[in-house]
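User: Structure please.
Assistant: Input sequence and predicted structure:
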Amino acid sequence: MFDTLITGGLVVDGTGAPGRHADVAVKDGRIAAVTPPGEPTQARVRIQADGLIVAPGFVDVHTHYDAQLLWDPYATPSNVHGVTTVIGGNCGFTLAPLRPGGADYLRRMMARVEGMPLAALETGVDWGWETFAEYLDTLDGRIGVNAGFLVGHCALRSYVLGTEAVGRAATAGEVAAMTAALHDALAAGALGLSTTLSSTHVDGDGRPVASRWASHEETLALCAAVGEHEGTFLEGIVPGCLNTFDDDEIDLLARMSAAAGRPLNWNVLTIDAAAPDRVPHQLAASARARELGGRVVALTMPTLVPMNMSLRTFCALHLIPGWGDVLGLPIPERIAALRDPAVRARLLERARSPEAGVLRRLADFRRYVIGDTYAPANAGLTGRIVGDIAAERGLDPFAALVEIAAADDLRTVLWPMPTDNDPDSWALRRDTWAHPDVLLGGSDAGAHLDRMAGAPYPTRFLGDCLRGRRLVGLETAVAMMTGEPAALFGLRDRGRLAPGCHADITVFDPATVDAEPAALVDDLPGGAARLTAGSIGVAHVLVNGVEIVRDGTTTGATPGTLLRSGRDTFSVPTR
């Protein structure tokens, strides 16, 4: 007697092999059999999947659900888009280890750099742990998806150095203490180490985050420690991730991977036909890693993620060199500065400079669309393009946008339209996805909650592959989000539909699968808002054989596994 039998569907097994009509039987949380359709079987629960696709659950390898899972164990909205496994602790940021009295600093840092509302972090998390092991135990047995976590270099440094983690290099003794704490975390099941040197990553006080003060020797020592534990990997961010790597960054990423003997991934590879040299240049880090015996993999997104921005709240515009000082002014002073033509000219000059990297695209204010407005003077502007409004008013686009926002006391919602949504860019993406050192990912789900919604990318991508641009076939698209990430991250018995594998399964309608438009909702602890989007055409999602989503709605079940290195992951060779 099986626990569950999914019958009548087209099984796309996550390997890239052609889909086949088959029944999938589940028992004790694993796939017991994949049989020809209609064979006599008995099961306690039968799921009819006629006309539907039966696929492995999707694996989202770059999330920041570290905090959200504590108040939302279901990892919404990722779960309703077919995601059954998430990896957190990316970009050098985690909630543990936690030095006694250090919660306020970590909260404010996460609020600033990852866009997690401070009120949600203060009211939705009890911060009752110290070690990384205690943090993992807080989640174990209480989550609706499978979730594993890297150790963030920033938390590790803050744990050992306290307030001096920001401002100086570590001594040899402090590096040894960090290494010991990292070993403890890895032994408890942490999946590896993440770190950042990105110039955009600043803490709640506006200072470079802790890992940016680390010497290369410190970072490489920690990477070497990771290599002593089974089933681990690395994630690293350097300034060139936003534009192009310099030679030192290429060498550092390669050396980090080689020191650990583990794959390293970085986020995110931007693909734009207007900058055709970027992709081969960025992938030079992968070539260098192979020379040293390592492996460096670039994450890239298969969809364009909409961003919700304003001149009032922290957003990507703050990350443009020279903009943070102006956008950090008190509101009345900020409005006055933005209305000054000389200030605007200076900001535009900085935004168009080489050091702005991929953020340069945000300075094309002609392409912005006006979202929600609040003042009577802005009535009728919602949904309109700033370039058109500017032409009507005889203003340059930036000046027109400032006047609209100023009338709303800067609350106006702004939607920047992508500059790389053209056929040549999509063709370049298709070709880049086929590279062995490129992997789909980079949703940032669980972060930047009021500004972007990357979590729905699996269903958006599938809809595009089935009924839109059709850049890759269904079987390839599914493998890119299941078998391939599971293999690179060493997830034991996940990412495939085969006997013995964990029963992480997504059942969806190929005729309709997609994501709803993103909407801002006030459902976070403390009354904070986030952008979220429901799914279309997702009929069933199972985690370890238990249904967590039915007809696009969360069931409330929490069968997820807290993924621990070694037990739930294996080491992926780099040579």
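The first strand starts at residue 2 and ends at 11.
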